[in-house]
Write a structure and sequence with these properties.
The protein is of the alpha/beta class. It is 40% helix and 16% strand. The chain contains five helices and four strands; from the N terminus they run ββαααβααβ. A hairpin with a 5-residue loop joins β1 and β2.
Length: 117
């Protein structure tokens, strides 16, 4: 974890190699250190992202920036699922005080740098 210029904790959700919802949920559980009770469904993800009590230590007080990288392969393989994931990220940002979710590079870290969008 790092911090941004505003002092918020920055966590990277690395989706490199993820091409389905199950993979996304597992990667969220791993990279975000979600609790064992995380339900691995869209509602549980939205609830977890919006709940500062499950964020990394110190993030509830300082804020949390979630950078989603390596997302393009998933978006291309499952565009309908990716649309739901984007909605979940947006909803969680609206619900969670201090949470900001942003799309980082879309490609693999093994490839040339990719731009979002």
């Amino acid at each position: 974890m790092t911090e941004d210029p505003a002092g918020r904790l920055v966590v990277t959700l690395d989706l490199d190699g993820v091409t389905d919802k199950a993979g996304l949920m597992e990667r969220c559980a791993r990279d975000l250190s979600l609790p064992d009770w995380f339900g691995r469904n869209w509602d549980a993800l939205a609830d977890s992202l919006a709940d500062p009590s499950v964020w990394p230590e110190g993030a509830a007080d300082r804020g949390l920036v979630l950078v989603v990288r390596g997302w393009r392969a998933y978006a291309e393989a499952r565009p309908e699922e990716w649309a739901v994931a984007e909605e979940v990220f947006a909803e969680a940002t609206d619900r969670g005080p201090g949470l900001f979710v942003t799309l980082g590079p879309g490609g693999s870290s093994k490839e040339a740098v990719d731009q979002p969008g």
